[in-house]
Design brief:
Blueprint: H1 9-36, E1 39-40, E2 45-49, H2 53-79, H3 88-115, E3 116-119
Parallel strand pairs: 2-3
Antiparallel strand pairs: 1-2
Helix pairs in contact: 1-2, 1-3, 2-3
């Protein structure tokens, strides 16, 4: 009788890191669209209606992107470079993708934070 192959935890971590990179990247893209949707570059102002759902979506996508990419960053770091991991290359790629997503998310949110203008 054949034995079932035991799953390697480092390969599983690399796959989870890829899933978290997709979630973080999509939420970062949604954040960027949400911030620059009505952005006035001449006045450096991001206009939004006070109490509108757009403001809360920007906050939620920022948190989701930072949470998913923060967890994925450390999962990929733990998985990358392991001798028994056949998906080590994937782990390194997702590690750098998470670093880029975290950086872009923080930059876009800082731009929104300093340029926001509430329209009453």
């Amino acid at each position: 009788m054949a034995r079932k192959k035991k799953t390697n935890p480092h390969e599983l971590q690399a796959k989870w890191s890829l899933l978290l990179a997709i979630i973080g990247g999509l939420s970062c893209l949604l954040l960027t669209v949400g911030v620059f949707w009505r952005f006035d570059f001449g006045e450096f102002a991001a206009f939004y209606r006070e109490g509108s759902p757009r403001f809360f979506v920007i906050i939620a996508t920022t948190l989701l992107s930072l949470l998913a990419s923060g967890i994925g960053f450390f999962v990929a770091l733990n998985s990358a470079g392991q001798k028994r991991n056949t998906l080590s290359g994937l782990a390194w790629k997702t590690f750098f993708v998470h670093a880029i997503v975290i950086t872009v998310t923080l930059c876009v949110f800082v731009i929104f934070f300093f340029a926001k203008e509430a329209v009453i």
